[in-house]
Amino acid sequence: MSDNLSVLGKARKAYQPKLPASLRNGALKVALNKGKATESVSDQKKIKALFPNTYGAPYISLKKATKAVAARPVNVGVVLSGGQAPGGHNVIAGIFDGIKSISPKSKLLGFLGGPSGLENGKFKVIDAKLMDAYRNTGGFDIIQSGRTKLETEEQWQKCLAVAKAQKLDAIVIIGGDDSNTNAAVLGEYFQAQGASCVVCGCPKTIDGDLKNEYIETSFGFDTAVKTYSELIGNIMRDANSAQKYWHFIKLMGRSASHIALEAALQTHPNITLISEEVKEKKMKLKQVIKYVADIVAARAADGKNFGVALIPEGLLEFIPDVGVLISELSEALAHHEKEVEDLDTAAKVEKLSQWVSKSSAEVLKSLPAGIQAQLMLERDSHGNVQVSLIETEKLIIEMVKKELKSRKNFKGKFSALNHFFGYEGRCAAPSNFDADYCYSLGYTASVLAYHKLNGYMSSVRDLTKGVDKWVAGGIPITMMMNMERRHGEDKPVIQKALVKLDAAPFKYLAKNRDVWAKTESYTYPGPIQYWGPSEVADQTTFTIRLERGAKVK
Question: Does the annotation count 207 as an active-site position?
């Protein structure tokens, strides 16, 4: 790995991530400050019944201690679960350095390929040489990731057997909402079986939808959006230079629109669609198209036949009539898949129109053929439409073009290009913020592991106050849970945090978007800065700053 590093990579490897004051003297010189008992965000009785051993545990903050607790080696297993996010290697580095500060004899095992590696006992020992090769790098390639769900007793038994065989004190699962739900379930099972091994989690997802009072942001979000915003800024320069194209940019984020919102705050596009707002206003597909077409037409009237529009990946599911169509299509395909699998798109549409409502059939038939085909693709493991495969940006371009042609008073030109920014940001080299934040999350996890805090998620907050004043701690995963319907059953899951329309980040967009629509208020963030003044190299996202009451320009 180290031989493959660029000049930048080699220089970056030497960066020493900063830690909150409470962790700087090592994981042994930390005091645990316990708060009040917690409860889940909703469905308290049901969640408590499912997690009788771990429910109601207190929030814990870490304080610097004058005396060290007794040292003993601690053996930890680590799992990377779900999609990649910048900074994962630094979480592992934080765990490694944390447990080595407890005892040089501590051992870190990296389970290969995600949760399946834990289930099947496939791992590698992470030693100093291996760890040093991956510090401050993007990607999850040190042990790779996977999406296996640990949801059956047979799987839990296999994981427990592996933990016992390797004499593990703790397993740290690094992942998003589903992965950390798995961590809580596995931890509950371990405790019910009287196991000495505990299970902890770390909050990861570039989507930004794993957040609450104690998890101010999930790691990777900062780097990913800064990467996308650099690309968006480059496209804005090009648009303003050529002044002949509209650029429609779809941004990753399966459900929540946090990425699109943050990218808009960083770059000031002419159009930003926010899925949660579309749903709140109950805007039908025709209304969304009209909204976009109106802005295109207004700019054309000023002689500006160009612009930039940002579109969240999950938009279609939030448009009420399209959302109903997707739901009904999923149900129809679940029962009639074999009847339509060999048909072409047109024939499939006619056939499926018989098994959905009249209004949904009308929406389906109004869509371009390419989008119709994508809506009928195989569903994911949750039974959901694979929104990343639906070219929403192309759909909007085609329908806006059709809408403008129907307007007799439209005299401008509409030439549009489409883009999708997703994988470009998932494995980027972490920003200073994510490098520090991830390292702190991992170091905190080492403390949670040492103190046998089962079913906890690593938490680092007060992120706008500078690393020195960050507050490290742990929160019970159950306090983030509610019950949701999955595959026809009620399941405990961590509640997704969607964009709040009454919160400061969205309000800032709403206040400024009319001006941004008419003018070229574009800002050009440029590449991520790793060196330089702290206000340049260590800056946090606009979202966090606005949520914490800071002023932004």
Answer: yes
Residue with tokens 């870190």: 108
* Shared-domain flag, residues 480 and 339: no
Q: Write out the binding residues for diphosphate.
A: 83
Element (H, E) at 8: helix 7-13
| Residue 551 or 33, more confident | 33
Do 345 and 229 fall into the same domain? yes
Q: Which domain holds residue 54?
A: 31-220+430-486
CATH number for the domain that contains residue 365: 3.40.50.460
> How many distinct structural domains can be found in the chain?
2
pLDDT at 158 over 70: yes
CA angle 222, 533, 89 (to 5 degrees): 40
- We report the CATH number of the domain holding residue 127 as 3.40.50.450
Q: Check if the beta carbon of residue 235 is closer than 8 Å to that of residue 379.
A: no
Question: What single DSSP character describes residue 152?
Answer: S
Task: Identify the active-site residue in 97, 178, 207, 434.
Answer: 207
User: Which residue from 221, 257, 231 is spatially nearest to 419, judged by alpha carbons?
Assistant: 231
How distant, in Å, are the alpha carbons of 157, 227, 257, 505 from that of 263? Answer: 44, 9, 10, 11
- The answer to the question of residue 496 being in a domain is no
Q: pLDDT tens across 56-79, in order?
A: 999 999 999 988 888 899 999 999
Residue 217 carries which DSSP code? -
Q: Is residue 183 part of a domain?
A: yes
Render pLDDT for 381-410 as a digit per residue (tens, 0 to 9). Answer: 555 667 677 899 999 999 999 999 999 999
Residues 227 and 214 in one domain: no
pTM across the whole model: 0.94
Write out pLDDT tens, residues 410-442: 999 999 999 999 999 999 999 999 999 999 999
Same domain, 131 and 35: yes
404 with 459, same domain: the answer is: no
Do residue 213 and residue 98 come from a single domain? yes
Q: Are residues 468 and 405 in the same domain?
A: no
Asked if residue 304 and residue 214 are part of one domain, the reply reads no
Contact 261, 543 (CB under 8 A): yes
Instruction: Tell me which H or E stretch contains 256.
Output: none
Q: Are 376 and 333 in contact (CB under 8 A)?
A: yes
Residue numbers in the known binding site for Mg(2+) are: 177
| Domain-located, residue 492 | no
Token pair for 479: 């306090």
- HEC per residue, 497-519: CCCCCCCHHHHHHHHHHHHHHHC
Binding residues: 83, 177, 205-207, 244-245, 252-254, 313, 423-426
Distance CA 73, CA 99 (A): 8
Enumerate the known binding-site residues for substrate: 205-207, 244-245, 252-254, 313, 423-426
For residue 6, tell me if it sits in a domain. Answer: no
